[in-house]
Amino acid sequence: MPCLTDEQLTHFDEEGYLLVRGMLDVEEVIQPIIDELVSSTKMVKSHPRTTTCPLASA
Predict the structure, then answer these.
(1) What is the pLDDT of residue 40?
(2) How far apart are CA 54 and CA 15, in angstroms?
(3) pLDDT per residue over 4-57, tens digit each?
(4) Which pLDDT belongs to residue 22?
(5) In sequence order, what are the residues at sequence separation of 6 or more whose Cβ sits closer than 8 angstroms to the Cβ of residue 11?
(6) Which residue of 5, 11, 16, 44 is most buried, as measured by CB atoms within 10 A?
(7) Structural contact between residues 34 and 40, judged by C-beta atoms closer than 8 angstroms
(8) What is the value of pTM for the model shown?
(9) In this structure, how many other beta carbons lie within 10 angstroms of the beta carbon of residue 12?
(10) Burial (0-12, 13-18, 19+ Cβ within 10 Å), 14
């Protein structure tokens, strides 16, 4: 099993995340999630927009 390099560990310690390419299979894991999100957004007909940001007056 491959281990993390010192450079990867340092990056994680400093940035709080680590990008691990090839960790998840795109077709098997990621694409079904994307498909589900796209499908669920198709059911949204509209989103109420506000003209002002409620935090602007805070």
Answers:
(1) 87
(2) 31
(3) 899 999 999 999 999 988 888 989 999 999 999 999 888 777 767 666 666 666
(4) 84
(5) 18
(6) 11
(7) no
(8) 0.44
(9) 13
(10) exposed
